[in-house]
Amino acid sequence: MNRTPTILIVDDAPTNVVIVRRMLDAVGFRTLTASDGPSARAICHAEQPDLVLLDVMMPGETGFETCAQLKTDPATSDIPIIFLSTLDDVKNKVTGLRVGGVDYVSKPVHSEEVLARVRVHLRIREANRALVEHHRTRLEQLRDAQQAILVRPGDCPAASFGVFYKPLEEAGGDFYDVVAVDTGVFAYFVADVSGHGASAAFLTSAIKALLRQYTGPLFSPEDTMRGIDSVMRQMLGEEQYLTACYAGLNQHTKRLSVVSAGHPPLLLVSASGQAQTADMDGDPLGLFSSVLLQRKDLKVSAGDRFYLYSDGLIEASAGGGRREGLERLTEACIRHRTAPLAEAAARIAGELRPAAAIVEDDLLLLAVEVPA
């Protein structure tokens, strides 16, 4: 800690405040004072002290009540609180620790004891902050790395797609990719790795590499999925798996080939507003020794749009289950079928998952338009 720590002293007895303040000032701490609980809470909000020395017996609001309120407030919950009290029986000490105090010192206080305990808890708090910052930095690096491997519409304009992607945490387990197989031939891929956070996000770079390795003229859509499955079985932990949907579009022949591996069905909306889903059975990838897959070939026309998405978009919709969520998704896709692709994806996702709604899963929607 390079800066001078600030300590708030809370006691209704001025003499006690003077004694404690002098011992802290003498060794270089910055001190603040309060004579009651409400004032102490206001100072904690305004000044964010590094530690609070809190008396128990005060008029109006006891120190236990002040501590409990500070700990239930997110803005002050991580400030360590040491009780200073003449109530030195076990029952009161336990109460102090139970409401959120980190230590309990009996009055009359001794300078060396107070300073030793203050320093210990300041060091603990600083170590916790450093650990949190370390993990935050690592997750930000992971998030940035994951974002860097996601293809953007501007990177491949001929593929004619828009995307909405909002991970639940810093890095998500949902993944998408768009691969140019040949001139006018593109592969669109969406996957959902079981679980959230770093463990799922670490796998997305491997999935991208596998998709690129097994996508091309030498591989059918089923071959691509089986190639990913064969490697992921070696990488995934026990009971971990991924669902995925692969859609191969030949813009010349207007043929769309779809393979699903336990993933929500691709949604196709015609230029005139007719909708259909490519429902099929299929095993998730990385789970079984032999994966069973189904394929559907659909005839599409210029102006048609199809959508690949993760289950968070339909399961997290307000009310109902996946079927109701898919119905709402279909209605939204029809309603916004003439909007520019990038705007359409954001509008559709915003209707199903408003910004103020509670998000419980990664959200991903990949929208593709069949060009003329």
C-alpha-based Rg, rounded: 29 Å
**How do the strands of the widest beta sheet line up side by side?**
2-1-3-4-5
Q: How many domains, as an integer?
A: 2
The CATH H-level superfamily of the largest domain is PPM-type phosphatase domain
Quaternary structure state of the chains depicted = single chain
| Total strand segments | 15
Examine the coordinates and then state which fold CATH places here, giving the name of the CATH topology of the largest domain: Phosphatase 2c, domain 1
**CATH class annotation of the largest domain:** Alpha Beta
Give a quick rundown of the structure.
This protein is an alpha/beta fold and 372 residues long. It has helices at residues 14-25, 37-47, 63-72, 90-98, 111-148, 197-213, 221-235, 312-315, 322-335, 341-352, and strands at residues 6-10, 30-34, 51-55, 81-85, 103-106, 161-166, 174-182, 185-193, 242-250, 255-261, 266-269, 275-278, 294-299, 305-309, 363-369. The chain has a five-stranded parallel beta sheet, with helices on both faces.
Structure commentary:
With 372 residues, this protein is α/β, with parallel strands linked by helices. The protein has 2 domains: 6-140, Rossmann fold; 149-369, PPM-type phosphatase domain (Phosphatase 2c, domain 1, 4-Layer Sandwich). It is built from 10 helices and 15 strands. The strands form 3 sheets. Strands 2-1-3-4-5 form a 5-stranded parallel β-sheet, sandwiched between helices. α2 (37-47) runs parallel beside α3 (63-72). The longest helix has 38 residues, at 111-148.
